[in-house]
Amino acid sequence: MCYGKCARCIGHSLVWLAILCIVANILLYFPNGETKYASENHLSRFVWFFSGIVGGGLLMFLPAFVFIGLEQDDCCGCCGHENCGKRCAMLSSVLAALIGIAGSGYCVIVAALGLAEGPVCRDSLGQWNYTFANTDGQYLLDTSTWSQCTEPKHIVEWNVSLFSILLALGGIEFILCLIQVINGVMGGICGYCCSRQQRYDC
Question: What angle, 0 to 180 degrees and rounded to 10, lies between the N-to-C axes of helices 155-190 and 84-117?
């Protein structure tokens, strides 16, 4: 197995996951496609933490492109030795993976907190507040309580769906970056490829 090819596969996956995180986070700003709730500050505070845009999005592009760059057509080492440069590159990719772990971890934590607290909405008394803040996330299991939010329409479904997507995407990114930490260490210790023939195929 060539460790560089594995890293490249992880890198391409992270790019698409990061794009999806950015899209999901942006959609949180526009319940039902309307902009007035953002301008009136009637959105969950966790929407403003930019967990999908920064943590699971922009920050994830750095490790993604580092991983993609590990797979090149030549196997010449930058230190003047055939395998030395590649080993150094694989080990340095571990640092990029740690950045990815931090970003995806931030995305997961914020998304989980956003799910637990629930959205800001107008209740039956006409007041804007965190209607489900004191339920410890139990509202997620009792959909009959979601009707307590009268505006924006279907805001609970909107928030639950998008924060759940961010939670899942961030979790996948975290796992992929963790795999790359192991892959990078193995590649650095064992060599960029496991055999001379595989090095020629890289």
Answer: 160
